[in-house]
Amino acid sequence: MLLIFSGMILRQADKPLLRRFLNSGGERGRAGRTESPGGERAADVARPPNMQWIDFPDDRFTVNGLAWWEETRPRLMRLSERHHAGVREPVWNLAQAPSGARIRFITDSAELGIRAHFPSLGPMNNMPRTGSTAVDLWVDGEYWRPVFPAGEELDFEGVAFEGQERRRREICMYLGLYRGIELQAIGLSDDASIEPPSPYALDRPVVYYGSSITQGGCATRAGLAYQAILQRRLNVDFVNLGFSGNGRGEPELADAVAEIDACCYVMDWCQNCPTLEELEERYEPFLATIRASHPQTPIVCITAIFSTNEVLSPTSAEKWAGMREIIRDAMAARRAGGDENVHLVEGCDLLGPDDRDGLVDMTHPNDIGFLSMADGLEPTLRNALGL
Questions:
Q1: How far is C-alpha 186 from the chain's CA centre?
Q2: What is residue 289's DSSP assignment?
Q3: Residue ranges in the chain whose pLDDT is less than 70
Q4: For the chain, which end, N or C, has fewer CB atoms within 10 Å of the first or last residue's CB respectively?
Q5: Alpha carbons 326 and 328: distance in angstroms, whole number
Q6: Tens-place pLDDT, residues 308-325
Q7: How far apart are CA 108 and CA 192, in angstroms?
Q8: How, if at all, do strands 299-302 and 342-345 pair?
Q9: 3 touches 15 (CB < 8 A)
Q10: In this predicted model, what pLDDT tens digit does every residue of 263-291 receive, in sequence order?
Q11: Which fold has domain 34-195?
């Protein structure tokens, strides 16, 4: 028997994987009763009669995942303006996408609306708008829906849900992974209460630095990037400093990462370095920069996950093997020097040659691939964080 799932053919033997994907870590869907199935055009949405619009930012709405939010507000961006002069322009441009950012609060509102401006709605070849752009709504730890413009209008006003029972709900809105957003207002019932969200288990976030894979390419929704899955499972905040095609470990980025007081640093980069020489030159110094400011904080280093480039090109296979070896050597050198709080994770144990259904193209995980990565990283993070 064959199952058709998200454009893939799964064998009967793969049903446990599909069931685990749909039910693991709160990933099962839950659609509100009055919701439309996709994005909504602003012109098609009638404002509920009792909705108030609260200008954003508002301190009643907690912003997580943006390390320099107090410097950048109201702009939802991943680096501070003071970093601009020191980073390459592609990195700065990618930092305008709020990958990993969440808006969280508790409310008893019967409806929820979003008013926003999207600077760009351009298509991506390997990623839907629900992942690149949409506000991904989760309620009480369960997925409800994405909210995004279905057309090409950059100014958007949409209703995520309405007419719901008046009861206390915890709202988490994951912002888009690859497109910027100017969030202008959040709509709630006129008399709705707004409370702080539940606290995370730890006061400090996990900080991830890396490539397009780290940024979230190519999850179908922001809440399905591997860091978001781990955030829900571990109840730990995170900061995403993945830069698509540009996770090259420059000293300026090492300095920026080291500015953040994290509970753990996850190094998920190597593939974007054009040569093995550049990776070798930068990898261990990047770790040393973090260690200089945070001598006891766990560091997790991930070697490259599998890519079908390794099958198609002997040159690529040699390069991927070389990248993995450079990371192993850097970790061994740190341990030999007395650093006992570094943890090596083999990328092929997260997504390897037998996990090709987890790739959307030759390199980037799809939702199944990100679930596999979260499964593989969870034990290491739990151990490193003492959870």
A1: 22
A2: H
A3: 1-47
A4: N
A5: 5
A6: 999 999 999 999 999 999
A7: 6
A8: parallel
A9: yes
A10: 999 999 999 999 999 999 999 999 999 99
A11: Jelly Rolls (2.60.120)
| Residue carrying structure tokens 């995520």 | 160
pLDDT of residue 247: 98
Q: By CB neighbour count within 10 A (0-12 exposed, 13-18 middle, 19+ buried), where does 35 fall?
A: middle
DSSP 65-131: S-TTHHHHTTS--SS-GGGGGGS-HHHHHHTTS-TT-EEEEEE--S-EEEEEE-S----BTTB-HHH
What is the distance of C-alpha 336 from the center of its chain?
Answer: 33
- Compute the residue count for the chain: 387
Q: Which two tokens stand for residue 248?
A: 């090259």
pTM to 2 decimal places: 0.89
Structure tokens at 177: 């992974």
User: Cα–Cα distance between 241 and 364 in angstroms, integer?
Assistant: 17
Identify whether 199 is preceded by a cis peptide bond (ω within 30 of 0): no
Domain spanning 206-385, CATH class: alpha beta
3-state secondary structure of 170: strand
The domain limits of the chain are 1-30, 34-195, 206-385
